[in-house]
Design goal:
The chain is of the alpha+beta class. The chain is built from two helices and four strands. The longest helix has 7 residues, at 38-44.
């Protein structure tokens, strides 16, 4: 199929932290950056959340929990 994107190329890893789900966009080791502007990096990667763990930076998008009402017949 010419011009199609394989499914695995479009899927992103989902992680859970602080009782929230996040779509992981990018990980970077903290020591690779010197005095970075985190707000600029979040904009660059189109992320709204930055998580840190064991020397790694996780650029993520929060997956909003929706409220719904079950419809019964």
């Amino acid at each position: 199929m010419r011009g199609s994107i394989p499914l695995q190329a479009t899927m992103k890893e989902i992680i859970k932290a602080n009782d929230n789900l996040y779509q992981l966009v990018r990980t970077i080791r903290e020591d690779q950056l010197k005095n970075p502007n985190m707000e600029d990096l979040k904009k660059y990667f189109y992320c709204d959340t930055l998580l840190r763990k064991q020397g790694m930076l996780y650029f993520c998008r929060i997956i909003e929990e929706i409220e719904y009402e079950e419809i019964t017949k």
